[in-house]
Amino acid sequence: MNDQPIGVFDSGIGGLTVVRALFRALPGERIVYFGDTARVPYGSKTKETVTRFSIQNVQFLLEQKVKMVVVACNTASALSLAELEQRFSIPMIGVIVPGAQAAVQATKTDRIGVIGTRATIASGAYEQAIRKTMPRALVYGQACPLFVPLAEEGWHEGPVAEMVASEYLRPLIESGVDCLLLGCTHYPLLVGVIQKIMGEKVKLVDSATATALNTKRLLEEKDLVNPGTEKPRHGFYVSDRPIKFSEVAERFLGEPLETCLTVNVDGL
Known about the structure:
The protein is of the alpha/beta class. It contains 11 helices and 10 strands.
């Protein structure tokens, strides 16, 4: 089972920041990625709909014989991970708890900011995860929905991005947070602008990096690390627009995709 791939799913393309972090943390592991580009975004949908989509996504990954699943979508992690863990016996990890743990380790004043989609922020999932480890923490959430299209269109720097970021981040600056958790997988692409607006004294925490490190620890605990030395061949699948996905994916991964296939998961 050790040479089987790690399955990763997201509502679209943002989860590729988690894949990039997995490449760094686990260079010997093969990744199978599914982006639900036909039904993106998840952040504006109900919990029931997101959970139904997430179950179908996991079913598809299981058909690819994955040895574990990484829920790279913050919204799916916040709304659906608990039910996925009950339904499936395969090892599974989301992005909420790793990100929250990293934020707790980063803060020195116990004042933590969290940015994400409307659904993620409204769920309170990050705040609950942070308070579970640090009950005294003061958590300030801020939805930043326009960050996603900015990242996907390549407008992650310049005056437009800075203007949008200034509007979103002003309340967090006024609250005096000393660390800011990037609670959406698209947001690492805007890290330069976000850091500029927040100031150098505010530590930015990337949930994608934290998730990759937790994935590595989980594989080691369950003795599922791939001992092979050959460079793995990864698989990328989407539910719509593979050409557009491949074009944008290079910006997220820092390297071009070899192939990207379209699949239909509706009936799973």
